[in-house]
Amino acid sequence: MMHGPRDSLRAEKEMNPVSQTVRRARYLAPLATACAIGAFVWGQSATGRESLAPPPAFEITTSPAANYLSALSAGAQRDTAAAAAYFREALRYDPRNSELMERAFVAALANGNMNDAFTLADRLIKRDPRNGLAHLVLGIKAMQQKKFDQARASFGNGGGGKQRDITATLLAAWTYVGAGDVKRAIESVEKLKDERFGLFRDYHAALMLDVAGKRAEAQRRIAIVYAEDKSTIRIVDAYARISARNGKSEDALAAYEAFERLLPRHPVMRAGADAVKAGKPLSPFVADAARGAAEVLYGLGSVGGRQSDDLASMIYLRLALALDPQHGLALATLADVYERMKQNEQAIRIYEMVPPNSPLYDNAEVQIGLLLESAGRSDDALKHLARLVEQRPQDIETVLALANLQRSRKQFAEAADTYSRALTLSSGGRSDWSTYYARGISYERAKQWPKAEADFKKALELFPDQPLVLNYLGYSWVDQGMNVPEAFKMLRRAVELRPTDGYIIDSLGWAYYRLGQYPEAVRELEKAIELKASDPVINDHLGDAYWRVGRKLEAKFQWNHARDLNPEPEDLEKILKKIENGMEDEAKPNAASNDTAKDGG
Prior knowledge:
With 601 residues, this protein is mainly alpha-helical. The protein has helices at 17-24, 64-76, 80-93, 98-110, 114-127, 132-144, 148-159, 166-178, 182-190, 198-211, 215-228, 233-245, 249-262, 267-277, 289-306, 310-323, 328-340, 344-351, 361-374, 378-391, 396-408, 412-425, 433-445, 449-462, 467-480, 484-497, 502-514, 518-531, 536-548, 552-563, 569-581, 595-599. The chain is 68% helix and 0% strand.
């Protein structure tokens, strides 16, 4: 899934009238997660191709009670498409039921059924003029229609009239921009005196001034914001675009390159930098008032997603997309919420809506392949990513995605070859450590240890003290009886760096075991099992250590537990033998499979 920006726009956390409606409508609790799932259209993607996600399957009945119960069931199963359809049908048989009406409203809104949401918002306002979410939705409808005075009135009604309601203030300010009164817009924004909102206030003021053509003042404002926060994608991109449009291409390129050092190969940053280098003009960050309001709502949705407030996140992102349907980051964030909710087919549909001209399009296509794998459609995933690599042979992210998929499917030799291809596409640098590390794992699992060892060392050369690499190389050396003193140093250092990683602590415990230091092994492995109680390898290791210190009943308990945790077939055979016969006291301990432990959390 795509990195999102650091949560530096702290003010966005408090811009949340949606949460007021959710808290007030207590009956929405069963739908809170269900309403976070949905899709725009069924069947076709933004490119017109057939969707890779199957259409939803649900059947509307003629029984109002059955439809209502089906809606509740769909909510419990986190299926908003079905929930919205069933609630709509149930409401048709009981149109005066206020509770049912609000359920249908929220389900339609979270599912992206905007026409239904607009109609129900009108009906809800007539019954409850204080419904803040309904007013917000009607304000968005008015913004779509460029009825800025009407939109402003709706936003004011939805926000409660409090000065701290930054949502209503910013949305209302954007209506002034739409009406051509940027002076009034800035005056409105300046009312946000609370310095907790200072960054967000100046950010939107800069965007408003830029839309109004007041570029010098926009430059001054965005420079203040950028000086305070140089690590948030939207701020960096806005600063670079406004700078470039003011003839400051060098400043724009410097901003993009600084972010590249912080988070390499982000597609939005890369596209902006490439355009500046090529001397191409950068499009405005925000083109008009509607898209400015969409930026407010996107900020709310992205923060809600990071705080796991999925219902609010979905609603804000849907409203942002109602105003700016091609907002690539809003689409990617929405898909990411679906993915986090394990709704892989819905996430695929959203990624398919990313327009081909978006810098995020290639990344979205890769995510579709990974989601197909997560959905259990491994052959489709491999075909999809292989096709992408064929279409874009020079795209390192696509090649790496294919390599990662091959490795996850234990096609280690093929994965190593694909990682090698990715390295030939790289411009070099510290970020290559992860590719050498992944190729090293592939070589090790393909029983090509000399190549694996060389890659692990190269990864540490690029990124000294990288805990995952220290763990894997140190574990491998101990497991093979090689370079044991240095391996111990590596493992201890890895534990220092990641003291709550059960896999890394297991590696240290197993190193003690391999050296015959069984009490120390038990100590570390018990720590590891507290952190990763459901890992079969760690349970197996602890069972071996218990046996060696004479705690044989506990050893058999751990082996039985390891057996029940679906270990690898080759490990299961060894575990069953130990359960049956125990271990020979005189035998040198045999290493259990190290695949899980070495990878680290």
